Please model this.
Amino acid sequence: MQVKIGIIGGTGRMGAFFRKVFETAGWEVQIAGRSTPQSPADLAGACDVVMVSVPIRETVGVIRSLAPLLSEGQLFCDLTSLKTGPVEAMLTSRAQVVGLHPMFGPTANGLPGQTIIATPARCRPETLDLLLEVFLSQGARVTISTPEEHDRIMAVVQGLTHFVTLGVAETMRRVGVKPEDTLAFMSPVYQMEMCLVGRLLSQDSSLYADILGQNPHVMPVIEACEGAFSSLRETIGTGDTDAFEEVFKKNAQHFGDYCQKAARESDLLIASMVRQ
Model:
């Protein structure tokens, strides 16, 4: 029997991406958006799987509006960058529940090599296998987590990295240096850093506002980051080379074997950039 999935927000970029993913898997896909004839409630009453793909700040509200409409035989999913709140909201329904977080944007060229995090909260094993096989069969990697662990790790993976990246942009603006002022001085590593900054700034600011502002684990990480910067600034300001080397050594030990792995992988990226 063909599985029927309804994607709420299916006219958006991420919803459209996953529409193609499920169509490739042979599923029947229906979508609901602000301008579609079908409403979210229509999909909730007609589909085996109901997936919510709307902006983070709207997700819980949409889920709560749909939860009373779902039955035990259905599967309720979302595609949000946060998991605890959306999963808790989905659990108020009678449906099976799996939170999903694709660790890529809608501009990705398909699923090969991409990571999707799944947080199954109330789901039969065969239902979970059916859903995850769609992603695995198209080359994705799936990481299983709890909603709480997901949000804690995302405070570093997304919160810390986005905060630092925005901090680089803010600092350059404050000191009056534009990327083009540095082009003739760029090393490949600096170019990679600028690419990350420019990539982030080219996207939707509201997405990053929600990622940073709505995950309660982010602020303690940012506070730790501020403390780290303050300590490093003090060490550098004193000119104490021994103290600096001690901090450097401790961080290298903390990263362990990953340091060499990162050096090898970044060497490949640098070689590719230099050849262009």
About this structure: The two ends are 50 Å apart (CA to CA). The mean pLDDT is 95. The chain has two domains: 4-145, 149-238.
